[in-house]
Design goal:
The longest helix is centred in the middle third of the chain and has 23 residues. The model has no long low-confidence stretch (mean pLDDT 91). Helix 11 links the parallel strand 11 and strand 12. The protein has 2 domains: 207 residues, Glycogen Phosphorylase B (Rossmann fold); 178 residues, Glycogen Phosphorylase B (Rossmann fold). The chain starts with a strand and ends with a helix. Helix 1 crosses helix 16. Helix content is 44%, strand content 15%. The strands form 2 sheets. A 7-stranded parallel beta sheet has the order 3-2-1-4-5-6-7, with helices on both faces. Strands 10-9-8-11-12-13 form a 6-stranded parallel beta sheet, sandwiched between helices. It has 400 residues and is an alpha/beta fold.
Length: 400
């Protein structure tokens, strides 16, 4: 099987979507499949892709945002078709629906199937609404969004099959009139050799300069409102009234230059008088070590989070996770772990949930082992790769 993969920026710093694709490509390459990567901007995973990809090819764009870009779009299609070999075992895989205009055109041009990996809910059917008094600026915005919506609509019509990361996300697309029978669910998986518990908890704490008697809560992800970081900080301030020996570590950066939001969070910490107990770490390369040093990881998403990669990474490291009851998160925190769900945006509910689990090392020392078993039995790297491989091979067989 030969996969031609469309990615915007191959980077581990943008979120789980990009990491998941890299893991899938790497895993399929290890199983003998050929991978060719198309990308528009360089990222920190590019060199690693080059180590196992058959071809790595930069294109200018996957969308035609302006009339003058039509020529670039067509030239890129021609170059890809000329420089990358296509055969009856070739398939185009778009890592997000946003890039399907190029993916659909390429698949149609070379008569191969297009598969789209769904990490997000579907786009709104109407991205912009006409108003008579919108003015010149409003008119330009209306035309831009209308053009965007039209291209996505055309691109998505060219998709032969979809893969989504949760039943919740599949339901979102089915409710938007996409046929249920062309959408398969393959949950994300995690490499248990990378994400694993520490062999020496005391030593790990010393490396982080954190004493054993401190209870550590961590957040790993983008710093934006959708991730509910404000809720975490407010809940932490409430928790500290009864658990003064706690610390909050926030790992991640703002994306799209939204530094104002980080400043808002930093000011919130000061306003709540917990600045001595909260630390902003920025981007952390070794998140395994952060999970290992933590007592609890929190994912407080306020939007319809399709999956929540930090959950499986943390639990694979034997660190329990408290997550908001929204999107695909309840599909991961099942069984006894559904007790660690809280109502999204509700800092009091989050604080109460944290208070029940924060000192698990004393009350329920085997909880960490059960967290790891939960992931290894249901959400391993191998299960994800096998699931993706099965879907893609079926699509190729049906197309031929």
């Amino acid at each position: 099987m030969h996969l031609i993969v469309l990615e915007q920026t191959p980077s581990s710093r943008l979120g789980g979507q990009q990491i998941a694709l890299f893991d899938i490509c790497c895993g399929l390459a290890e199983k003998g499949h050929k991978i060719s990567l198309l990308y528009t901007q360089e990222g920190n995973l590019l060199e690693q892709y080059q180590q196992f990809c058959d071809r790595v090819f930069k294109v200018k764009r996957y969308l035609i945002n302006r009339p003058q870009y039509v020529f670039d779009f067509l030239i890129d299609l021609w170059k890809v078709g000329k420089n990358i070999p296509f055969d009856c075992k070739t398939l185009v895989l778009s890592n997000q629906f946003h890039d399907t205009p190029f993916g659909s055109a390429l698949a149609s041009y070379k008569n191969v199937p297009l598969v789209c990996y769904l990490h997000l809910p579907p786009p709104r059917k109407k991205l912009a609404t006409w108003q008579w008094n919108m003015g010149l600026r409003g008119l330009k915005k209306f035309l831009a969004f209308s053009n965007l919506g039209s291209q996505w609509s055309i691109g998505l019509k060219g998709v032969k099959h979809f893969i989504t990361v949760s039943n919740h996300t599949k339901s979102d697309w089915v409710n938007s009139d996409y046929p249920e029978n062309i959408i398969d669910i393959v949950y994300n998986g995690v490499d248990l050799e990378v994400y694993k518990p520490t062999n020496d908890f005391v030593k790990t704490r010393k490396e982080w300069n954190i004493s054993e008697d401190i209870e550590v809560i961590s957040f790993v992800g983008r710093l934006d409102r959708a991730k509910g970081v404000e809720t975490i900080i407010k809940a932490f301030a409430l928790l500290q009234k009864n658990f003064p020996n706690t610390r909050l570590l926030i790992a991640g950066n703002s994306v799209n230059d939204k530094e104002d939001y980080k400043k808002l969070l930093e000011q919130l910490v000061v306003d709540l008088k917990v600045e001595q107990s909260v630390k902003f770490l920025g981007h952390v390369n070794n998140t395994t070590s952060l999970y290992q040093v933590s007592d609890v990881t929190v994912l407080a998403s306020q939007w319809s989070e399709p999956f929540g990669r930090a959950i499986i990474e943390s639990m694979a490291c034997s660190t329990p996770v408290v997550g908001s009851r929204i999107g695909g998160i309840p599909e991961i925190l099942t069984g006894e772990f559904q007790n660690f769900l809280f109502e999204a945006t509700n800092e009091r509910d989050l604080a109460e949930t944290l208070s029940r689990v924060i000192n698990w090392r004393e009350k329920d020392a085997q909880l960490g082992e059960r967290c790891r078993h939960h992931i290894s039995s249901k959400l391993s790297f191998e299960k994800m790769i096998d699931g993706i491989e099965k879907v893609l091979e079926t699509v190729i067989i049906q197309h031929n």
